[in-house]
Request: fold
Amino acid sequence: MLLVPCPYCGPRNASDLRHVGESHVRPDPNTATPEEWRTYLYLRDNAADWTTETWYGTRCCRKYFKVERNTATNEFRNPPMPGNKLGGKA
Amino acid sequence: MAQSNRLPQQPHEVIDRGSPLNFTWNGKNLTGFTGDTIASALVANGVEVVSRSMKYHRPRGYITADFWDPNGFVQVGPEPNVRSGHRELSSGIAVDPQNVWPSLDYDVKAANGLVGRFLSAGFYYKTFMKPASLWPAFEKVLSTFAPGGTVDLEAPKDEFDKRYAHPDVLVAGGGPAGMAAAIAAAESGASVMLVEHEHRLGGHLCWGSDADVALAGELAAAAEAAGVEVLVNSTVTGRYEDNWIAVTQRSHPLATERLIKARAKVLVVAAGLIERPYVFAGNDKPGVMLSGAVRRLVNLYAAKPGERAVVFSANADGDATVADLERAGIEVASVVDARSGANLIEAHGGSKRVSSIEFADGSKVDADLLVVAAGWTAPTSLLNMAGDRPVYDESSARFFPQHAIDNVLTTGGLAGDGTRDELVEHGRATGRLAAERAAAVRHRLQAFTVQAAPVDGDEPAWADDARTPLGRDPHPALFQSTSTGTKSKAFVDFSEDISNKDLVAAAKEGYDSVELLKRYTTATMGPAQGKLETVNTVAVLADARGETIEEVGTTVWRPPYAPISLGGLAGRIFNPHRVSAIHEWHTSNGMVPIQAGAWERPDHYGDPAAEVRNTRENVGIIDVSPLGKLDLRGPDVPKLLNLLYTNKWSKLPIEGVRYGIMCADDGVVMDDGVTGHLGENHYLMTTTSSGAARVWEWIENWLQTERPDWQVHVTPVTTAYTSINVAGPKSRELMAQLTDIDLDPEAFPYMTLRQGTIAGIDDCIMWRIGFTGELSYELHVPAGHGLHVWETLMETGADLGIKPFGLEAQRIMRLEKGHFIVGQDTDGLTLAPTTGLEPLIKLDKDDFVGKAELAWAMNDRLDELPRLVAIQTTDPTIVPMEATQIVRAGTTEILGRITSSRMSPTLNRSVCLGQVASAMAAPGTELELVLIPDGRRVTATVMEHHAHFDPEGERLRA
Reply:
């Protein structure tokens, strides 16, 4: 099982957390086109490469945080930063 | 029967002759000693045949006499498939052979041997494929041929457990190298877990020379002194991502099996080598044993495996077996040295035992024991699981790892050959390296944790592998005897009854890739999972294809390395069981429970229809404690409510209560509930009972990721309050006796709340809402006083005809009122405006979750979406089952479905909610329903209001 570096609790089993998914920006609902909005809702890069993704500490700190993970090797890099706004792609 | 085949005292035996144990075998009373395995006790009692083979029912004796013995499966009392080569003898057990009918000595199905040519590889696939209609009949007959013991469903349940462990270094295998690695790692400061598959540390040293046994003892003592956690009779069964390691512990004093989930920073694999059988005619006859089996039986257990032996030796272990046999006084008739080119042709014998051995030079020697030392298989399973792809080395005739993984190290026989000292030195170097790398891993993991304790110093350099590699001893490549022309079978897979002829035939049929061959013939797929058979399978296929073993390649070993019981995987059951503070009262007052998520709550107390009638006529109370409750504090709560609910919250006054629907950003309804304004910057939100946890995470998500600047603090308080709904026309009269709060409808109107004292309890919240459609007060009282308030309500309300009601009555009443339940009447595609609550969707708000999709839906395509409507069947006695389809009249075109239906005790007719296509949603539209299960078609009508009862809401506003 993957060991996830929670910035608050330290390394934790992936089963202690929820993989929220690739981090993304929520468009302005008043100006977004349906295409932009549905890209935000449904489309993910799903790259076999470094990705920026959000995890949630369901069984530890109950915090959302962002990490960089290589989906091909499961390496993590750059200590994840807690408390920052999580929007924005890497 | 005295132990006829028990040898005199052997120098390093592990049995306690002062402690005899009685047991039965096949109904006969026998005796063994403490320290015996079941196998050694049987051999010491002269038992030659222990089982019948799976397909041909051939008599079989021990061949490896250890955990992996394919012939050693027995029934022990109620427990089937016990590995008798491994399981230690205990007092009074009843051991029986399995897979025999009618008896071990006379087995009718051995006739399969006579028709063996019909049972070749793929026989079942080919023969029983067609006609498919006959498969049930085939299955019935074939299942009687299936191997395995019998399960006793009445047997008492065993105890199982789980444990988590976090060693710096985990060493798999307690032979000389593994022990040395564990000791060196521990001495370097690492926390170490050492896991040994067998019952004692030592590995092959245990049945070796005086010096071997002495070293095993020294290392075991040193491991203990170094603080190594030693687990014997335990197996590392799997290695997963980031060294997540499964250990099956069979030696726990209280649990039959304990699954240890270990997160090791470095894994050291010291699994040793497994002796490989040799494929020759008659190689499965009782009396043919591998050298390891003979040395175990003689040296550890003083059990005599035969009277007169022939030893076929290709290595030092074969040679040592000769010495062991001679010391034990067993006649060695002949030693055949494979290194000088001598070879076996066939083991001849009667139905029960080998009687003579035929050699390639034509000579024949009478013997009742043939010892085979033909080579080794490297059990690289854990390395395969870590991503290593071991490579075949022809000169040593076995596979070696490529050492490609940083945090998985290999030592001992898997890594190479050496003297005792060389193995120990390699183990020590491996342990030191493992400890150094573990320290670096620890540092790296801590560095990710920015809010934990600061990490001292720089990350240690990643230690290079500077170990002196072990050598590789040359070994003859012995897989199958060159002659396969005899009548007698030469087995590759003993547990699956696969001979080399079967493999060659399958290869000729086209199954000539090793992965296909394995699956088609089932070779390597039995209980030993390839430990004994894989390399021989590959070698036979290589011969058939005229290629090398390297070219053919091998199958991939997957977890588990050794079997895990289902009980071990399940462990103890820790599912939460949630009950309210009133639960005891419910159980002693006739509750019929229903499980709702983790909650056990009253479905009803005997007659839900009567509960409905009483609530509508008098007053009823229901325990709604599982209702999700979130305490929201902070100046920005109104902003949060405006964001998460579709309606407006900025102007909700203190003591106001409002209903809201929550959508996801796709506009689909995800939860609903009421939220009350308790005081300045203080609100109480309620959610659906099943959505409590989800909504909390949802709120945190928005606050933490999208609106981190908002000042809102969320506390889940579901279980801090006992929640009771008091409903019915007499509820005001009841509550007036229990509180000073002014209940006058002018002073305390519908959709407002009051805080105060109820039944003498302070800090209670009471709000007027109406899920049931009646005048009702929902009480949220401190949970510690919940039972008191409930009992006081019951006592005080006795004169008013109070009765408790359960979930079912509540569901009926809400359906009579047309209130939908999220997830029952809505689904994963239900957009909020289609539920009849369009007025609650305020598109003029700047933003709310789901706004974009809802705006597009409401402006452009609301007419295309299905609608939630109230439905009544024409025949009032018909209650269409939930999920009943609504179709276009006379056709099978589906236009919707019934989402909720009940017989209404209030209206004496059936009432429904359903989703229908928008074209069918106008009031008065006639619908056609296809009833479940008989397909009968009946008519129904779309109603004007969702509420079947009191559509104007006069009762709840009373």
User: Anything to note?
Assistant: The beta strands of chain A are 3-6, 10-13, 18-22, 50-56, 64-70, 76-77.
